[in-house]
Amino acid sequence: MQLPKERKNCACNPRFNLKVKTGTEVNIKQKYRTEPCLELRTQNSELGDRSQHAKEREMTTIRRFCCNDLLRFASVNLDHLTETFNMSFYMTYLARWPDYFHVAEAPGNKVMGYIMGKVEGQGESWHGHVTAVTVATEFRRQQLAKKLMNLLEDISDKIDKGYFVDLFVRASNTPAIKMYEKLGYIIYRRVLRYYSGEEDGLDMRKALSRDVDRKSVIPLKRPITPDELEYD
């Protein structure tokens, strides 16, 4: 399908658009993915709370990641548990899987967080993968990571028709593991010495609608080594 011309006032030119309010599900335009950006609006429920962060929560914009964002998101990666990569790595994802690379902004174009992923695999292993998701410290506890994860899951489910979404997390990162479990992910398997420093990684998965029998989330009974992974 030939895509319409991009809007002149937006450099992102994503192939889909959606708007949600707090507590609602994300809806994706599957047929016409042509709108230039995604806006996610959250309303402050407590009248009179006009702090800076409250104002920023009132209007959060989530849009496709652009090349210029590579120069602006360093502060989001300050968390020691956030994996960082070289510039060519980010550019590869931006070129190959643009639908899976999004950034969240507060008013004033302040980067709040981002998510980066891809789609890969064959047959019943066809799935979406979360390579990185992180939120700046001052914007946490606002369910922003959940909204970014839901977006990637919807793309994997409704557009690319994947069987599941997976991600890897350090076995010692208990807060992240608990967050993913609240989002419906299960520990599918342990990967021995997956991370630098000889730390094990946990492969966590969430079945999508195409996996009717939920075969993709039946946990393995033994740990594996990185050499045994079917895909990277």
UniProtKB/TrEMBL annotation:
List the SUPFAM superfamilies.
Acyl-CoA N-acyltransferases (Nat) (SSF55729)
Please give the superkingdom of this protein's source.
Eukaryota
Where does the N-acetyltransferase domain start and stop, copy by copy? Answer: 60-209
Q: Name one GO cellular component term.
A: NatB complex
GO MF entry, a single one: protein-N-terminal amino-acid acetyltransferase activity
Keywords assigned by UniProt? Acyltransferase, Transferase
Report whether Lipid biosynthesis shows up as a keyword of the record.
Answer: no
Q: What InterPro entries does its record include?
A: Acyl_CoA_acyltransferase, GNAT_dom, NatB_acetyltransferase_subunit
Matches recorded under CDD domains = NAT_SF
User: Does the keyword Nucleotide-binding feature in the UniProt annotation?
Assistant: no
Q: Which family does it belong to?
A: Belongs to the acetyltransferase family. ARD1 subfamily.
Official protein name in the record: N-acetyltransferase domain-containing protein
Organism whose genome encodes this protein: Linum tenue
